[in-house]
């Protein structure tokens, strides 16, 4: 069950949209903020709110890489693995962070603090290699800078 | 018109045609996966590449995405385009398993064809292939996702064309998955079409899994007998077993698709319960002996009770020739009663519906698909004629408004999405729970409330229920259709009157007259109504109520009510194990529709021929070694001593003394003699028949 206030907020968002589907991303993001990730329950909630079938929500949820259909850590680090960042050392950056955090790309640290996700693309090609945490873009970042940025986020949470 | 040149051939096509379609119009094939005539383009597969040599666009282009324009010079054989197509196919094949030998699609696989045609023969990629877990999609469709080439045809058909919401495309990039959220039967009543439209073997017919290859099948153009719409099919059989049914394109009728009821109702043809042995008083005899016995029995019966006491019962599920011969048999016997319908309501309503239809106002499924306004009156489309619901959806998708006439406010379900006669949760064929109609509609009180003023192509779809009958009267008053002499049981003959009532649509020609579509009861209901009119048929219930009937001979008839015990069933001819067959003195096993040639006249009055698909006989599968191979010499297969009803009646008439028995398609039906099974069919015009 989601809190009444959140439900009302999301219902208002859907009501404002010309077609309910248009509000799908906002609804999914709202639910993700509440649950921490888009749980199966959240998919069902979203379907009810949007007047879509759960499958239709699932189609959208699995399309967007910043909608998480599995549990994630408190900090989610998206490291760009697209071509521009790759050319600027994105691969090295990702390997370095894997080592530093002691996890493989796609995994979450044991203390549930950091999830490391490769992604494509952050639209920050001019500043490769790039990474993103929450709504903040960083780049170009060296492996050391990246580690420091992540450490900063880890503490603030 | 747009003029362009494709492979040195000048082509002229209407505006909006794609280069791919333009090439097809002059029989130049261009490989394609994502493009489908009924679904349009998606630009997902990249395999239809052509080279534009001159004109407004240059270079290698996707022919399915490119509208034909004046001055284009297109080459499908250019080296660059060929190289591109070859590379694309190689790339599509990278993850495709090498399981063609155990894949049901093998031999009828577009991916196989285009891989060979594209010149990709040797695999260079030796890396790991992407793999998926398959889902259980119900008892009818097998899922094998590893074969997928991401053309999106399935999800586009399922959600956009058919309005299903429980199946779609999930994921992105290299991990796109086509399936349901969880395992479970597909909910759409049109899900079987996934088998037809998938260009490879992701979706195959589970009911015929591992049974035969494409080249093994007995196949012929046929017509679906499971409702009155007459959708075109290709049934596929092997070893005297009807294995599966696929859709056959007919742009006027079903387009490219059929419903699951039509696709998966094959078991009745193969069932061991089916009558295959002629019986006289329960004793097995040959078909000839049974006919001899029936001729004798009939002679005695007529002598004892007189000709008035005999009813000859035809059926709306029997083909036209059988019903014509039933009518001729009655004529020959001098009296008796011809019953092609069970009850008076049905006979009356079907007769009225048929009398209202003319060549001009009869709506085909294509007319429904292109309508800009649809009114539903007293029909339950998903139960009675599922493909009509799909046709209405296409109209609705193009912007048509859909209205349903509500019978009475008290009968309306709460909220929207279902229509009056439809109770949610009701089971329908194939064990599915009937879902909502695949389009949105509004309830209105009467036809007078329909905003016809701005419509150009309105269609009214009407059921043959009591509600429909009431609404027909409303149609009469609302539109002043030529529907004045609706008599009891008989057929309205007003259509033949010299001065039909003035229609409001004639005045000034502002509004088009709405086209009409009736949902009838049975694949040949229209033909039976027409025969009943020509031969003064009486509904069986009315004939029995009369009290004179002492015995009946039935041909492929289903009775809704138990026949009174006092009525003797002299003979029953059928391929289905009906109650009448169980009671009959003489049992005459007949061929099923796939085992004979015949004609059904569908709900719009379109006569369509179906060809013989397979030889009759017990399916080899299931025969014990004692029965197969047969130990007795003979021409027929075991269980193959059966004949079409029309043939049985002709043989009976010979035995009763008719010197020359005319073939069924003579007299008023002569025009149908040369009907082509692969054409569009012929609309029967009652005025010409009269």
Short structural description:
The complex is a heterodimer of chains A (157) and B (690). Chain A has seven helices and four strands. By secondary structure, chain A is of the alpha+beta class.
Walk me through the topology.
The complex is a heterodimer of chains A (157) and B (690).
Chain A: H1 4-16, H2 24-35, H3 40-50, H4 54-63, E1 75-80, H5 83-87, H6 90-101, E2 114-119, E3 131-133, E4 136-138, H7 143-156
Parallel strand pairs in A: 1-2
Antiparallel strand pairs in A: 1-3, 3-4
Chain B: E1 2-6, E2 9-13, H1 19-25, E3 49-54, E4 59-62, E5 73-75, H2 79-93, H3 110-118, E6 141-143, H4 153-161, E7 168-170, E8 177-179, H5 193-197, E9 203-205, E10 218-219, E11 222-223, E12 232-238, E13 241-247, H6 260-263, H7 267-270, E14 279-280, E15 283-284, H8 287-305, E16 310-313, H9 320-332, E17 337-339, H10 344-356, H11 365-369, E18 373-377, H12 381-384, H13 386-397, E19 401-405, E20 442-444, E21 458-463, H14 466-479, E22 515-519, H15 525-535, H16 540-546, E23 551-555, E24 568-574, H17 579-583, E25 586-589, E26 598-601, E27 606-610, H18 645-655, E28 682-683, H19 686-689
Parallel strand pairs in B: 1-5, 16-17, 16-23, 18-19, 18-21, 19-20, 21-22, 23-24, 24-25
Antiparallel strand pairs in B: 1-2, 3-4, 3-5, 6-9, 7-8, 10-12, 11-12, 12-13, 14-15, 14-25, 26-27, 27-28
Description:
The complex is a heterodimer of chains A (157) and B (690). Chain A is α+β, with helices and mostly antiparallel strands. Chain A has two domains: 4-63, Arc Repressor Mutant, subunit A; 75-156, Glutaredoxin, CATH 3.40.30.10. Chain A has seven helices and four strands, in the order ααααβααβββα. Chain A has helices at residues 4-16, 24-35, 40-50, 54-63, 83-87, 90-101, 143-156; strands spanning 75-80, 114-119, 131-133, 136-138. In chain A, β3 and β4 form a beta hairpin. In chain A, α2 (24-35) runs antiparallel to α3 and α3 (40-50) crosses α4. Chain A is elongated and about 45 Å long. Chain A starts with a helix and ends with a helix. With 690 residues, chain B is an alpha/beta fold. Chain B has four domains: 2-93, Ubiquitin-like (UB roll) (Roll); 103-109 and 121-270, no CATH class; 282-346 and 527-689, 3-Layer(aba) Sandwich (Rossmann fold); 355-522, Dimethylsulfoxide Reductase, domain 2, CATH 3.40.228.10. Chain B is built from 19 helices and 28 strands. In chain B, the strands form seven sheets. Chain B has a seven-stranded mixed β-sheet with strand order 15-14-25-24-23-16-17. A five-stranded mixed β-sheet of chain B has the order 2-1-5-3-4, with helices on both faces. The model of chain B is unreliable at 408-431 and 482-510 (pLDDT under 50). The chains are: A alpha+beta (157), B alpha/beta (690). Chains A and B meet through α4 of A and β7 of B.
């Amino acid at each position: 069950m989601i809190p009444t206030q959140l439900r009302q907020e999301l219902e208002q968002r859907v009501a404002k949209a010309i077609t309910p589907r248009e509000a799908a991303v906002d609804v999914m993001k709202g639910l993700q903020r509440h649950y921490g990730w888009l749980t199966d329950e959240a998919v069902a909630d979203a379907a009810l709110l949007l007047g879509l079938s759960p499958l239709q929500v699932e189609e959208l949820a699995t399309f967007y890489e910043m909608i998480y259909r599995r549990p994630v850590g408190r900090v989610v680090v998206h490291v760009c693995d697209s071509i521009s960042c790759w050319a600027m050392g994105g691969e090295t950056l990702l390997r370095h962070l894997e080592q530093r955090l002691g996890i493989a790309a796609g995994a979450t640290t044991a203390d549930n603090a950091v999830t490391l996700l490769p992604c494509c693309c952050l639209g920050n090609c001019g500043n490769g290699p790039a990474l993103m945490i929450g709504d903040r873009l960083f780049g170009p970042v060296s492996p050391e800078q990246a580690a420091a940025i992540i450490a900063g986020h880890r503490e603030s949470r | 018109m747009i003029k362009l040149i494709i492979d040195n051939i000048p082509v002229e096509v209407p505006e909006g045609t794609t280069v791919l379609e333009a090439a097809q119009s002059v029989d130049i094939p261009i490989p394609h996966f994502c493009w489908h005539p009924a679904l349009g383009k998606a630009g997902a597969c990249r395999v239809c590449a052509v080279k534009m040599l001159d004109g407004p666009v240059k270079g290698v282009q996707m022919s399915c995405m490119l509208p034909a324009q004046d001055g284009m010079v297109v080459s499908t054989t250019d080296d660059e385009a060929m190289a591109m197509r070859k590379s694309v196919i190689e790339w599509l094949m990278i993850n495709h398993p090498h399981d063609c030998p155990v894949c049901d699609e093998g031999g009828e696989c577009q991916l196989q064809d285009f891989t060979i045609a594209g010149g990709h023969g040797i695999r260079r990629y030796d890396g790991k292939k992407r793999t998926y877990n398959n889902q259980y999609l119900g008892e009818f469709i097998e899922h094998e996702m590893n074969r997928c080439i991401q053309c999106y045809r399935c999800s586009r058909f399922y959600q956009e064309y058919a309005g299903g919401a429980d199946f779609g495309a999930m994921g992105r990039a290299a991990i796109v998955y086509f399936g349901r959220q969880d395992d479970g039967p597909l909910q759409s009543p049109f899900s079987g079409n996934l088998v037809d439209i998938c260009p490879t073997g992701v979706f195959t017919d589970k009911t015929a899994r591992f049974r035969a290859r494409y080249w093994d099948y007995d196949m012929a153009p046929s017509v679906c007998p499971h409702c009155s719409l007459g959708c075109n099919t290709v049934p596929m059989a092997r070893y005297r077993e009807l294995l599966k049914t696929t859709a056959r394109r007919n742009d006027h009728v079903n387009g490219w698709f059929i419903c699951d009821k039509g696709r998966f109702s094959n078991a009745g043809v193969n069932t061991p319960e089916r009558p295959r042995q002629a019986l006289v008083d329960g004793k097995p005899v040959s078909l000839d002996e049974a006919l001899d016995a029936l001729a004798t029995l009939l002679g005695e019966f007529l002598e004892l009770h007189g000709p008035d006491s005999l009813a000859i019962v035809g059926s709306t599920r029997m083909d036209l020739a059988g019903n014509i011969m039933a009518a001729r048999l009655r004529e020959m016997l001098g009296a008796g009663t011809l019953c092609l319908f069970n009850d008076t309501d049905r006979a009356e309503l079907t007769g009225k519906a048929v009398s209202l239809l003319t060549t001009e106002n009869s709506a085909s499924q294509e007319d429904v698909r292109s309508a800009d306004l649809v009114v539903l009156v007293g029909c339950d489309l998903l139960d009675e004629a599922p493909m009509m619901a799909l046709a209405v959806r296409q109209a609705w998708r193009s912007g048509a408004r859909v209205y349903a006439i509500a019978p009475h406010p008290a009968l309306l379900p709460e909220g929207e999405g279902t229509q009056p006669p439809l109770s949610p949760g009701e089971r329908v064929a194939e064990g599915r729970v009937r879902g909502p109609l695949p389009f949105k509609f509004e309830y209105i009180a009467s036809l007078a409330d329909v905003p016809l003023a701005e419509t150009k192509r309105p269609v009214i779809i009407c059921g043959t229920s009591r509600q429909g009958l009431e609404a027909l009267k409303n149609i009469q008053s609302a539109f002043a259709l030529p529907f004045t002499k609706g008599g009891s049981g008989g057929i309205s003959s007003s259509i033949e009157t010299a001065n039909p009532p003035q229609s409001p649509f004639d005045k000034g020609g502002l509004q088009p007259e709405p086209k009409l579509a009736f949902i009838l009861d049975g694949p040949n209901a229209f033909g039976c109504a027409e025969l009943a009119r020509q031969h003064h048929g009486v509904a069986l219930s009315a004939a029995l109520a009369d009290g004179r009937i002492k015995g009946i001979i039935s041909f492929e008839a289903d009775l809704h009510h138990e026949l009174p015990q006092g009525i003797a069933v002299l003979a029953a001819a059928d391929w289905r194990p009906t109650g009448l067959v169980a009671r009959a003195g003489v049992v005459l096993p007949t061929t099923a529709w796939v085992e004979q040639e015949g004609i059904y006249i569908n709900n719009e009055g379109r006569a369509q021929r179906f060809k013989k698909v397979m030889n009759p006989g017990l399916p080899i599968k299931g025969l014990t070694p004692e029965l197969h191979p047969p130990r007795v010499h003979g021409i027929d297969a075991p269980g193959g001593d059966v004949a079409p009803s029309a043939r049985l009646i002709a043989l009976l008439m010979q035995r009763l003394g008719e010197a020359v028995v005319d073939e069924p398609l003579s007299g008023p039906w002569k025009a149908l003699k040369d009907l082509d099974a692969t054409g569009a069919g012929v609309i029967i015009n009652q005025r010409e028949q009269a």
